[in-house]
Amino acid sequence: MPEAPRPHPRGGLYFEDFVVGTTIAHRLTRTVTQMDNMLFSNMTLNPQPLHIDAHFCATETEWGKPLVNSLFTLGLMIGISVNDTTVGTTIANLGMTDVKFPAPLFEGDTVNVATEIAGKRESKSRPDAGIVEFLHRAYKQDGTLVCECRRQAFMLKRSR
What we know:
The protein is an alpha+beta fold. 23% of the residues lie in helices and 33% in strands. Strand 5 (129-140) and strand 6 form a beta hairpin. The chain is elongated.
């Protein structure tokens, strides 16, 4: 019987370990706070009142409360996936495409993430690496899809 793949000592999977079509339901979840939204918006110099001004949101938006900054949502979604997929084995992110935010995320919502292995190929320039395409999806506690994207990552091979 073949031996199960051994992850990197930090926990990430190697290029060979990813099976196209597999979906990983990530163990980590995260409840988003007002502090997350304020800090991220301020650290990125984003003055959009839709994220940081409760009065504006209550009086001038259809939501009635601040929306979580979508780039925070994107980063959180990918961050949640790292522990189960790429920690210690990523050489670099190559890009993110097809980023969508189909529903709003608010303070107090809890995010969970699933990642589908959408594709992979050998590197043409480096025999010690390959490219894996991840399809990340983030949901809030009621199952509503709040974010998705395709991410291409340059991954180490086990046999380097």
